[in-house]
Amino acid sequence: MRMLSTRPLALLIVAALAIPLAACSRGGGGRTDLPYVARDVGTLYSAAKDRLDRNQYKLAAALFDEVERQHPYSIWARRAQLMGAFSYYLDKNYTQAIQSAQRFLAVHPGNRDAPYAYYLIALSYYEQISDVTRDQKITQQALDALGELNRRYPDTRYAADARLKIDLVRDHLAGKEMEVGRYYQVRGQWLASVVRFRNVVDTYQTTTHTPEALMRLTESYLALGIKDEAKKAAAVLGANYPGTQWYQRAYQLVEKHGEPVPVPPLPDVAPTAAATS
Asked: How many CA atoms, within 13 angstroms, populate the side-chain half-sphere of residue 41?
């Protein structure tokens, strides 16, 4: 699931990397079966770049890989290695793109193109994010990769894009916690739901899901008979999100149980009988 367009920036950066240079080439990790035909580095690089320009990404990646295989000590081998990773990314072969970029970093950790390699890794995880009903392992890997890029190269254009995506990924992970928490609520598993909603409030408090999480905590605590905790959750909700439907609903729930809410509703805003879930 793509939450933000990534290809324009990736294409912009790779354009700078792929500026035609006389007799230059590079190779990547991973292998696509390609008959071995000895060729000079310039011929191989030109062939790979031509295939990339024609949107034949799989073949382009194989040819960039071939540059390193045939000319591993060429000064352009490392450039072809990163171009191969980019070609795999465009071909949506994200696993191979990640492996190729990681291999580049293992061999050339201090290279000036290292930030771009980290960026490709992060993008490759990011593009694989699935909806909240599925396992979120890839989502966490995307968050970790984006965070690593931001920590290592905070002043690069890649990090600026990564910070935007970090917010979106965190919101996505919070959405998964909410989805699981609601699942437990429907089944009356209130303690399990509290764990999920508390995680949203404690770990993902800057996301869009926090107001609902506080209201759901109020519901769950009341169902468990823990009225003091329910009032605390409602109070935090009222202090931070007083104009939301979630606060109106929480206020009504606590009041219904005969417990005054520490933070009153906004003037002229009456609690509604129900709020949209």
From this structure: 21
Using CA atoms, how far apart are residues 57 and 68, in angstroms rounded to an integer? 17
Query: Which string of b and e fits 208-218 if b means at least 16 CB within 10 Å?
Result: ebbbbbbbbbb
Q: And the tokens for 271? A: 């609690």
The per-residue pLDDT for range 32-44, each reduced to its tens digit, is 555 555 557 788 8
Q: Considering the entire predicted model, what is its pTM?
A: 0.76
Q: Which DSSP helix (H) or strand (E) runs through 240?
A: helix 227-240
Buried/exposed 158-194: b ≥16 CB within 10 Å, e otherwise: bbebbeebbebbbebbbbbbbebbbebbeeeebebbb
- Angle, CA of 137, 127 and 60, to the nearest 5°: 125
